Amino acid sequence: MRRSFIRCFLCLILIFSCTVVWALPDYYTLWVPVDVEAQDPAAAYRPIASDDRYEPFEDLTWDHPLRIAVSSDPHFGRAESNAEATKSIIRSVNETEPAFHAFFVLGDITEFGFVDAHWLAAREAFAEFSRVPVVPLMGNHDDLMNGRSKFLRYLIPDATSETARQTLWQRIDIGPVHFFKLNLLWGVEDWGPDVEAWLEEELASIPREDWVVVLSHCFFYSSGQYILGVPWFDHPETTTLIAPILERHRIDLSIAGHNHHMELATHHGVFYTVVGAFGGVLSQTPFDHVSETSLWYRADTFGYADLTFYPDQVLLVFRDPEGVALKRFILPQNLAP
Ligand SMILES: [Fe+2]
Ligand SMILES: [Fe+2]
């Protein structure tokens, strides 16, 4: 009797230890709108579930791994933006099988963040996401003329003025995959001692065998052009001030936008990805400067990045707006010594 009780008890422990609940907490998430026609923008985005809480990803295991999509810079509201490409990407991300667990949009969602109509256009387009939660970051265009308040009001309605900074600089844990949202817009204008201390402490707390992915609007290493005499490549400030912290803590991957093309680079054991191809006018080529860190780039098509996380490698596929693979990479974990 006693022996069978112990056996059952051990079985229960085994079952619980095997059940990994990888959750995307509700307040990180832009939900599918309940009422697309709603006039009140703050009321438009709510969880479909009435209990205000997204269901955790109870099905996620290494056998059914985390799969995310990332793109950036749709620039809703700009006449020259390619709205058809943006729509195709949304459709492709929403319909892909097996389904994406989240879609990260890395900013410059609007052309002018102070214009309500641009946010409304974004909301209408995002209403197509019936299955995939969207996690938005802010870009320099979204922040123009206090656009930050509209970004929060339209896309993160649960944020308050007190919690705004924590939603812009944020750690999101989905099981053993840890995402960091860094609010890098033009560069490091929002960086400061408080977030530096926060980032150092959080990165130090993560075991080496876990994944660390840093998301930001502004890039670190990238090829690009001089724009009005300013080098729009290998960002002089983010690579000097922040990249050394990421590399010292041996993060695995940075994903950014701001430059309107797709690229993979590597520096000191970290992979640096640019995916600014969600519909904003594409970067001009040939580039004035091809980064020494660059492994691959495409600037002649829109698209998105598709990432699947395995215990010791990530499958990274750059896709065109229809979901057709442009280039596949297998990125090993812990490349840094
Ligand atoms: Fe942009
Ligand atoms: Fe930008």
Descriptive account of the structure:
- By secondary structure, this protein is α/β, with parallel strands linked by helices.
- The chain has a single domain (2-332), classed as Purple Acid Phosphatase, chain A, domain 2.
- The protein is built from eight helices and 15 strands.
- It has helices at 2-18, 41-44, 83-95, 116-126, 147-155, 164-168, 193-204, 238-248; strands spanning 67-71, 102-105, 134-136, 170-174, 177-182, 211-216, 225-227, 230-232, 253-256, 262-267, 270-275, 294-298, 304-309, 313-319, 325-332.
- The strands form three sheets. A seven-stranded mixed β-sheet has the order 4-5-6-9-11-10-12.
- α4 runs parallel beside α5 (147-155).
- The longest helix is centred in the first third of the chain and has 17 residues, at 2-18.
- The termini are far apart.
- Mean pLDDT is 84; it is low at 8-36 and 41-55.
- It binds fe (ii) ion (FE2) (2 copies).
- One fe (ii) ion is lined by residues 108, 139-141, 217, 258.
Spatial shape: globular
Helix % is 10-25%
Catalogue the ligands: fe (ii) ion
Number of helices: 8
- CATH T-level fold name: Purple Acid Phosphatase, chain A, domain 2
Strand order of the largest sheet: 4-5-6-9-11-10-12
CATH-level-4 superfamily name: Metallo-dependent phosphatases
Please write the string of helix (H) and strand (E) elements: HHEHEHEHHEEHEEEHEEEEEEE
Domain count: the total is 1
